[in-house]
Design goal:
The complex is a heterodimer of chains A (about 250) and B (about 650).
Chain A (H helix, E strand, L loop, with lengths): L2 E7 L8 E7 L8 H14 L22 E2 L2 E2 L21 E5 L8 E3 L2 E2 L2 H8 L21 H11 L6 H5 L6 H12 L8 H14 L10 H5 L7 H15 L8
Parallel strand pairs in A: 1-5
Antiparallel strand pairs in A: 1-2, 3-4, 3-5, 6-7
Chain B lengths: L3 E2 L16 H8 L5 H4 L3 E5 L3 H13 L2 E5 L17 E2 L11 H11 L6 H21 L24 E2 L5 H19 L2 E4 L2 E9 L2 E9 L5 E5 L2 E4 L20 H8 L4 E2 L4 E7 L22 E5 L16 E2 L1 H5 L9 H13 L11 E4 L1 H7 L1 H19 L8 E10 L2 E2 L12 E3 L17 H21 L12 H19 L4 E2 H15 L6 H21 E2 L9 H25 L23 H4 L1 E6 L8 E6 L14
Parallel strand pairs in B: 1-22, 2-3, 2-10, 3-6, 10-18, 19-20
Antiparallel strand pairs in B: 4-5, 7-8, 8-9, 11-17, 11-21, 12-16, 13-14, 13-15, 15-16, 21-22
Classes of the chains: A alpha+beta (about 250), B alpha/beta (about 650).
The structure holds flavin-adenine dinucleotide and FE2/S2 (inorganic) cluster (FES).
Chain lengths: ~250, ~650
């Protein structure tokens, strides 16, 4: 197979950046999208040009490190699939493919296709945990958890933190990401004591990090490689409302 | 390459007395650091996988001042995230005869009697507290309808002691540890440095006192000092280029520490997992594991005739060789990992492999679908089938899967004593990075257990005994050892960039990987190892003559990152082969063709080899020193494994 690949090149945050066109031939349909970029990079290196920088690590769809906007869609054309799990057989021989980084104000470009997603970690630090220090845990079977709750908590906990939801959202909102964590922990008895403060604190951190508000466009869930549902955002909003009605405040800073 | 015999090695921290109370007594014997003093003690933790994140979080909770480093953009992305199957714990919730002692026994035996009894017992003992801790953190383990935790039996274990969260156990456990770490970062006890790479260890007056770090975004090289350094940087499976490890997994941190004096133990103990998706072409960048659980219902076979041309579905039963069921009638498709891997290699070496290059065997679900129905198979393995189809473009409900073994885990690593302290005082090593409690072979679902045991429960206790003597004298920026370590790193970066040769980093990595895979993989021979030992130094010399690293040292340069890692792999590979050559017995994952039983099983030679081989660095290309730590078994009597 042979492709024309138009790749976003940007040397750093100061540089304005531009799309640069490359021809990539001898592509096997069994290659993953990132392997196609590997091939391009090997050739660029031998030609004395700088290879394209892109993030990746596990290459099996679980670490959340990869993430490219391919032909305008976060993670590309295949539903529920991370960039690293996308294969070239999904494209047609001769296609032109446009590859860009995640675009969102809180995710500044580091270089080429690499962005800084540190803002997502900030949101978790605001309360995306259960406060239980090592050694203080009760026996695991002391609190049974209904299977439906455990399963639902798992589904939300499956978020890989890739940031595709933010990249896809016209408002640059990270509500799906934040809601997934609030829903995961809020659904379990272990997370219940901090349910109010968690929701309020994570929402405040989300807004402070510069993520936009949610207007229910649903673009986020459409590109989410793990299928986190919009219902999690509804749950999050409910938790925030509940916390406010109960007169809970955030945790003192 | 030769080696010289060094002084025998003794674990001075090893406890004695009754096995069952060794850990309790060791803890009681450890000096404590009073809470007010902890604030004045600084600890560096490199790595944020299960081991590193759990250690950094726990040390932070205890009140130490912790600095944590990882090369990914977030600590949550460490390679532990990819673990699928589960985590073992001796809870005996099933009442099926499990106990701490049985987990201890299975681990010592599974490791082919090459691990320390005291360490393994402690691991089994702590396993239960790990589950409690993770549940309390909100890890959504699989549950039964009654609300209690579900377990499964894994990797041929006779008891059901593996806790799991669908096929994403590593992810859920790591997120638990990451969240605990996040809480400490918010509390100010831990300072997080993502996108940084440790490129050297700083040793001052014989103690580990800091690390040299390259900021992967700015390219800046800096030093960080502390009262103790903990390495939790994972395994070195990527020395083989193709493995199931994440692309960035590397040996740099432990290798640099080795060069600074830490002994490297049992480098040749590597684990090859039998069920991975085969290589599809030269472009292959990594291999994907298909969970071991598939062997519960899938049947492994190859055509009888090497010249078979028919599609698998058209090959009648009499022309198929279900070679595992044939050779191992009582265990069949469920034989241990190393045996299944070697058997697959053998049929492929005989020319009967399937798929591209003949490097694959069928894992067939047709009988399971007939027996259980498609729906039941889908419930059990649906997500794995989907993953397989995504990668290969083939539908495993219609055509048998193709699988082949791949490098998966490294049991070797830096030598540590019972306190997890290396031979450099103040340098502690945890998780897959140390030479671990798994001996010559790790049981399924035991790496996650060990990483979390080390990080949550062992290290935070044992490190206190060392830190009780601190704080140690301040190491200023102008300290000659610090300056020297930093300039070594800067010089190396400059050298890598200045070769400006005509070969890419990846081309060297691929070549090294196939050399190791062919000669130090599933089956090792004296001849093959000697060949590899001749070839590796040549390849290393060629690397430094011909490698091309584009770009500069300033700013993000992923080629430069890879070049440094491959340069270290090119040194480690030699020690790996030397260790494999010197150990003329077979044990666990280390199979020497010269040492096998009449029916082709690994033949251990306890009289000669019941020791840990810990290697001391003397210079690149100069003979290392072999320091032997002898192993004694007071509780589990060494026996020969048999799966016939
Ligand atoms: C596909 C797969 C499936 C597996 N499934 C299971 C399973 O079901 N059960 C089981 O028990 N085990 C399983 N394992 C094994 C297990 O996942 C690993 O052994 C374990 O997670 C290792 O954890 P760790 O904390 O030691 O290291 P890792 O998780 O590898 O973390 C290493 C950390 O070190 C950092 N690092 C590395 N080098 C540097 C450096 N030079 N500078 C700075 N930072 C650095 C990285 O950024 C990372 O944070 C599996 C392994 C694989 C590959
Ligand atoms: S590289 Fe890990 S999810 Fe894609």
């Amino acid at each position: 197979m042979r492709f024309t690949v138009r790749v976003w090149r940007q040397t750093g945050s100061e540089d304005a950046g531009r799309l640069v066109e490359y021809d990539v031939d001898d592509v096997s349909p069994d290659m993953s999208f990132l392997e196609m970029l590997d091939v391009l990079n090997e050739r660029l290196t031998l030609r004395g040009e700088e290879p394209v920088a892109f993030d990746h690590d596990c290459r099996e769809g679980i670490c959340g490190m990869c993430g490219l906007t391919i032909n305008g869609v976060a993670h590309g054309p295949r539903r529920a699939t991370t960039t690293c799990q996308l294969h070239m057989r999904e494209f047609t021989d001769g296609d032109t493919i446009v590859v860009e980084p995640w675009r969102a104000a809180p995710f500044p470009v580091v270089r080429d296709l690499v962005v800084d997603r540190g803002a997502l970690d900030e949101v978790v630090r605001a309360g995306g945990y259960v406060s239980v220090s090592t050694g203080s845990a009760p026996e695991a079977h002391a609190t049974p958890v209904a299977r439906a709750d455990a399963d639902k908590a798992f589904e939300s906990a499956a978020c890989i933190g890739c940031g595709a939801c933010v990249a896809a959202c016209p408002n640059g909102s990270a509500m799906l990401f934040t809601a997934a964590k609030v829903t995961h922990l809020g659904r379990l008895p272990q997370g219940a004591p901090e349910r109010d403060t968690r929701a309020l604190d994570m929402l405040a951190a989300h807004d402070e990090a510069g993520f936009g508000g949610c207007t229910n466009t649903g673009e986020c869930t459409a590109v989410c490689p793990k299928g986190i549902p919009l219902a999690d955002i509804a749950q999050f909003n409910q938790d925030v409302l509940r916390a406010s009605l109960r007169g809970a405040g955030g945790r003192p800073a | 390459m030769r080696y010289d015999e060094g002084e025998p090695l003794v674990d001075r921290a090893a406890p004695d007395g009754p096995l069952e109370t060794r850990w309790e007594r060791a803890r009681f014997g450890t000096r404590l650091v009073n809470p007010a003093n902890r604030r004045r003690l600084r600890v560096i933790v490199v790595g944020t996988g299960l081991a590193g994140a759990s250690a950094a979080a726990t040390l932070g909770e205890l009140g130490y001042r912790v600095s944590s480093f990882c090369y990914q953009d977030s600590p949550r992305r460490a390679h532990s995230i990819a673990a699928q199957g589960g985590i073992n714990a001796a809870k005996n919730y099933r009442n099926d005869g499990d106990s701490v002692y049985r987990l201890f026994y299975d681990t010592v035996k599974g490791g082919d009697f090459r691990a320390r009894e005291s360490n393994v017992y402690r691991l089994a003992e702590i396993s239960t507290a790990i589950i409690d801790q993770c549940v309390a953190q909100g890890v959504p383990f699989a549950r039964e309808y009654g609300g209690l935790l579900d377990t499964r039996s894994f990797g041929g274990a006779q008891v059901s002691r593996t806790f799991y969260a669908r096929g994403q156990t590593g992810q859920q456990l790591l997120l638990g540890a990451y969240q605990a770490l996040s809480r400490q970062i918010a509390a100010g006890t831990v300072t997080m440095h993502p996108r940084t790479e440790m490129l050297d260890l700083v040793v001052v007056d014989g103690r580990a006192r800091g690390v040299v770090i390259r900021d992967l975004v700015t390219g800046e090289v800096s030093t960080h000092t502390a009262d103790a350094v903990v390495l939790a940087t994972g395994g070195y499976g990527n020395v083989f280029h193709l493995s199931t490890n994440a692309k960035g997994c590397n040996a740099t941190a432990i290798w640099r520490a080795h060069r600074r004096g830490a002994l490297f133990a049992n480098p040749c103990y590597t684990q090859i997992h039998p069920t991975c998706i085969p290589v599809s072409g030269d472009h292959q960048s990594k291999l994907t594991l298909m969970s071991e659980s598939l062997r519960n219902d899938g049947r492994v076979w190859v055509p009888v005739d090497p010249d078979e041309r028919r599609a698998p579905g058209d090959i009648p039963a009499e022309d198929r060789d279900y070679y595992l069921e044939r050779t191992y009638p009582s265990f069949g498709n469920l034989v241990p990992r190393d045996i299944a891997s070697r058997a697959a290699k053998k049929v492929c070496d005989d020319g009967r492999g399937v798929g591209p290059g003949g490097l694959g065997v069928y894992l067939d679900f047709a009988d399971a679908i007939d027996r259980l129905g498609r729906e039941a198979v889908e419930t059990r393995y649906g997500n794995l089938f989907e993953m397989y189809q995504r990668i290969t473009g083939e539908d495993p409900y219609q055509v048998p899967m193709r699988i082949y073994p791949a490098v998966h885990y490294t049991m070797g690593g830096l030598w540590v004593d019972y306190d997890l302290q290396s031979t450099i005082p103040g340098l502690f090593v945890i998780g897959e990075a140390n030479f671990s409690d798994h001996g010559a072979n790790r049981l399924g679902a035991s790496a996650l257990m060990q990483g979390l045991a080390d990080g949550y429960f062992v290290l935070p206790n044992t490190i206190a005994g060392y830190l009780a003597d601190g704080p140690f004298p301040e190491v200023t920026d102008a300290h000659p050892d610090l300056v020297a370590a930093r300039s070594d790193v800067e010089e190396r970066v400059r050298r890598l960039l200045s070769v400006e040769g005509d070969r890419t980093v990846d081309s060297f990595h691929r070549e090294l990987g196939s050399l190791l895979w062919d000669h130090c993989g599933m089956e090792r021979t004296e001849e093959g190892l000697r060949h590899a030992l001749e070839r590796i130094p040549e390849l290393r010399a060629e690397f430094w003559r011909r490698v091309r690293v584009p770009g500069s040292g300033e700013g993000l340069n992923q080629s430069l990152e890879r070049a440094g890692r491959v340069a270290d792999f090119l040194e480690l590979a030699e020690l790996l082969c030397l260790d494999a050559l010197h150990r003329t017995e077979s044990c666990g994952g280390h199979f020497r063709a010269e040492s096998q039983t009449p029916d082709g099983e690994a033949l251990r030679r306890d009289d000669e080899f019941a020791y840990v081989a810990a290697w001391e660095y003397t210079g690149t290309g100069t003979p290392p020193l072999l320091r032997r730590e002898s192993l004694t078994f007071e509780h589990v009597e060494p026996t020969q494994r048999s799966y016939q």
